[in-house]
Inverse folding.
């Protein structure tokens, strides 16, 4: 079957809520993927960082198969022997005290909004239904009604109202704006350490440290959405470590799955999660043994195979290689670890065009907004593979 067969079927039968590149993938191994016609590509998106460990990681695969043969789902009506061990291992790794497992990133965000509101009423003493959560312009936290309601991206929110009240939007990277926006009813500040979907937007150095101080001073819960930046992507296990801080609540997802089985989690260093009582929150699949077993191995291989260190070293190598490319189309290059973006000048005809050209040269990337190309390969990428990528990126950007 050629690719056009699948593309035609998909366009005909599926909702058009995505605009994918026209490549139909069939197999993956490490940083490489193959389409149904046998063409090979270097995956420079890694499923938006859900495949940090590389495609079809053999150790995670073994865990998936073994656990699938033992026990896959109990619901939380009963306990299972993977959940507690997942808690223990993720807490030890991230220095957290409590965990609440969910399935998708958006669910982890929804969970945290419920938890901080409840904490506001029970602990901080905010009057009933007056809790405010502060978020940033150009945020991306997922796709539910509540979450898109506090998005500033028209495409994400337009046509989906009415929205959930209780959110205040401030500029990203501006600690003073946070201080000004806080009122006695503010329960939390929800922010990405680096804005991924906005185009790998890196805040000024020390931003998170200032934010942490302001939150502490005002008894506001600091929630870091590390669903994309977490688990090694930026060259640290969690991006907060670049600023030497610990958030009160941290959201992880994507790479926690090892690319195999959806799982997300809210991690708490403060006792905010303690306010949730039986019956107040849950999910049929949240914390299921298959997800927990996969996640345990997904974080184990990140540590065992030094993927965080590799992300830091290879990120620097990739970034310096990109900065050696002389092209009139490049406006800016930025990145931290293997979280890298190139802004194309507006006159160059849009990032999509370059992603399509890169695909023709065997490199899979995805544009974000009009003029940004993001490079976020699996964290196991080698120097030789980056050299291979750089050659093709240079060709595409200079011809
Ligand atoms: C991907 C992402 C989410 C949403 O995760 P889903 O699993 O797609 O619901 C939330 N926040 C950030 C920062 C993300 O990158």
């Amino acid at each position: 079957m050629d690719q056009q067969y699948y593309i035609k079927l998909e366009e005909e039968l599926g909702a058009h809520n995505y605009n994918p590149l026209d490549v139909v993938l069939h197999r993956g191994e490490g940083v490489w993927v193959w389409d149904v016609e046998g063409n090979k590509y270097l995956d420079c998106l890694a499923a938006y960082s859900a495949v940090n460990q590389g495609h079809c990681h053999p150790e995670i695969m073994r865990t998936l198969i073994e656990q699938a043969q033992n026990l896959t789902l109990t619901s939380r009506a009963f306990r299972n022997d993977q959940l507690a061990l997942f808690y223990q291992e993720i807490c030890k790794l991230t220095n957290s005290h409590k965990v609440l497992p969910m399935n998708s990133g958006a669910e982890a965000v929804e969970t945290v909004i419920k938890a901080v509101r409840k904490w506001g009423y029970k602990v901080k003493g905010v009057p009933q239904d007056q809790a405010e959560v502060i978020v940033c312009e150009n945020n991306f936290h997922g796709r539910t009604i509540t979450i898109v309601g506090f998005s500033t991206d028209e495409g994400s929110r337009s046509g989906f109202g009415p929205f959930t009240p209780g959110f205040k939007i401030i500029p990203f990277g501006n600690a003073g704006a946070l201080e000004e926006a806080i009122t006695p009813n503010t329960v939390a500040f929800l922010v990405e350490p680096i804005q991924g979907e906005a185009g790998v937007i890196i805040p000024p150095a020390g931003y998170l440290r200032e934010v942490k101080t302001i939150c502490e001073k005002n008894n506001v819960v600091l929630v870091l959405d590390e669903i994309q930046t977490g688990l090694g992507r930026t060259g640290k296990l969690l991006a907060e470590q670049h600023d030497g801080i610990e958030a009160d609540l941290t959201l992880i997802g994507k790479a926690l799955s090892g690319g195999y089985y959806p799982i997300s989690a809210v991690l708490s260093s403060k006792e905010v999660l303690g306010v949730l009582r039986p019956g107040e929150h849950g999910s049929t699949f949240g914390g299921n043994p298959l997800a927990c077993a996969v996640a345990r191995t997904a974080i184990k291989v990140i540590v065992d195979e030094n993927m965080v260190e590799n992300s830091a070293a290879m990120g620097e190598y990739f970034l310096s290689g990109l900065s050696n490319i002389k092209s009139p189309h490049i406006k800016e290059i930025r990145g931290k670890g293997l979280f890298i973006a190139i802004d194309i000048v507006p006159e160059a005809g849009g990032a999509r065009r370059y992603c399509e050209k890169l695909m023709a040269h065997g490199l899979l990337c995805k544009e974000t907004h009009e003029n940004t190309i993001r490079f976020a390969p699996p964290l196991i990428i080698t120097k030789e593979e980056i050299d291979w990528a750089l050659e093709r990126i240079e060709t595409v950007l200079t011809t």
